[in-house]
Amino acid sequence: MSDEKQTGETPVTTPATTAEAQAEAQAETQAEVPAPSDAEVIEQLRAELAAAEQKAADYLDRLQRTAAEFQNSRRRLENQLAEETERANAALIARLLPVLDDFDLAFQNASAGNSAAGNAAEGQEQAAWLEGFRQIQKKLLDVLADQGVARISTDGAFDPTLHDAVSSEPHESVPSGDIIAPLRAGYEYKGRVLRPALVRVAQ
Predict the structure, then answer these.
(1) Is the separation of the CB atoms in 151 and 165 below 8 Å?
(2) What does the pLDDT look like over 5-25, one tens digit per residue?
(3) Any idea which fold 148-202 has?
(4) Can you count the helices (H) and strands (E) in the chain?
(5) How far apart (Å, rounded) are the C-alpha atoms in residues 158 and 201?
(6) Cα angle vertex 44, ends 42, 46, to 5°?
């Protein structure tokens, strides 16, 4: 008998032997699996490309939607700011209208006083003062006009959207439904009525 049989011991397996066996088994397995054909490779690449293109299209769509939402939000904010600014301007201008009314009343009273004045020198001095105040009034109206303020016309037919009729009376020379005379000026701000004009209307 040999020494191996005499001792009853099994052979010792080394790591190198195990690695070699695994490599051989893997090579045999790979040899059994057929390599993909060119058509299969091309088809797989096409599928991967289509998936990548779809993903890119989804990202682009999300980006465009986000950009559109941002633009809409910015536009809404700008519109809100513009509306708030116009409301604030309209409120300020409305507070100035009584000042313009005072100018008109002062000129009406001064004209009546001039017609009754007997002293020519005093009349000339008063006329000079009136002219100065008329220039001030004109400058104020010009400033308001630059901001979109305009006096409402009181010539011609009565318009209930622009005028308030204080009285309606017969008139020999004014057609029925036309304005006889204004009693208080009305004003518009950028096409919107701030205050209607008070007028007398012919029957």
Answers:
(1) no
(2) 555 555 555 555 676 767 666
(3) Nucleotide Exchange Factor Grpe; Chain A, domain 2 (2.30.22)
(4) 4, 6
(5) 7
(6) 70
